[in-house]
Amino acid sequence: MKPVTRFLKAVFNFFVGDWIILGGVAITLLVVALLENTSASGSLKGTAGYLFIIGIALTLLITLYRETRA
Fold first, then answer.
1. How far apart, in whole angstroms, are the C-alpha atoms of residue 20 and residue 67?
2. Is the Cβ–Cβ distance between 22 and 59 less than 8 Å?
3. In the predicted model, what is the mean pLDDT of the chain?
4. What is the pLDDT of residue 26?
5. How many CB atoms are closer than 10 A to CB 19?
């Protein structure tokens, strides 16, 4: 079981590396998907791309701020 756990941890560290990034991207994707699937208005669907970019940028800024303070 230990080799499997080490492998999964190595894959996580390679692709993400930080729980804040994983959580921020997941929340951003969830919000954008809900906005795309539930909004009947075309104008709200047009803002989903901007919301996605802002969400990812904020996630990266929060992570960078945490890394520079530590």
1. 11
2. no
3. 88
4. 94
5. 10
Residue 29 has which token pair?
């994707």
Q: What is the pTM of this model?
A: 0.76
Contacts 24+ apart (CB under 8 A), 58-66: 58/24, 59/20, 59/21, 59/24, 59/25, 59/28, 60/21, 60/24, 62/20, 62/24, 63/18, 63/20, 63/21, 63/24, 66/20
Q: Tell me the per-residue pLDDT of 32-53, one tens digit each, with 9 for 90 and over.
A: 999 888 866 677 777 888 999 9
> From CA 57, how far away is CA 39, in angstroms rounded?
24
